[in-house]
Amino acid sequence: MPLQNHLKEHRARLGLNQQQLGSLVGASRQTISLIERGDYSPSVTLALKIARVCRVSVETLFEYEEEDK
Questions:
Q1: Helices 18-25 and 44-54: crossing angle, nearest 10°?
Q2: Is residue 53 part of a domain?
Q3: How many whole angstroms separate alpha carbon 4 and alpha carbon 37?
Q4: Is 63 within the bounds of a domain?
Q5: What pLDDT, on a 0 to 100 scale, did the predictor assign at position 1?
Q6: Number of folded domains in the chain?
Q7: Residue 41 falls within a domain, yes or no?
Q8: What pLDDT, in 10s, does the model give residues 44-65?
Q9: Which of 21, 46, 52, 55 has the fewest CB atoms within 10 Å distance of its CB?
Q10: Phi, psi values for residue 27, rounded to 5°
């Protein structure tokens, strides 16, 4: 999985549950859960919104790792 994330840690630091974070960024609780599990890569817009709410850079939340060929 090339896109790693640290969303759960940052969400917990803010004391938000998945539903609350979803409401703040215009996404469902299910979408936040899928992102945290690594089963869904957010759009650029959603990633930027999440980073803004978490008060960190997108690069702090999401890391792209090249897959072995």
A1: 120
A2: yes
A3: 9
A4: no
A5: 58
A6: 1
A7: yes
A8: 999 999 999 999 999 999 998 8
A9: 55
A10: -130, 165
pLDDT tens per residue across span 1-29: 578 999 999 999 999 999 999 999 999 99
Our CA angle for 58, 44, 13, nearest 5°, is 35
Q: For position 69, what pLDDT does the model report?
A: 61
Q: Would you state the pLDDT for residue 66?
A: 77
Domain that holds residue 7: 3-57
CATH code, 45 = 1.10.260.40
In sequence order, the 6+-apart residues with CB closer than 8 A to the CB of 13 are: 54
Asked if the structure places residue 66 within a domain, the reply is no
Is 5 within 8 Å of 61 (Cβ atoms)?
yes
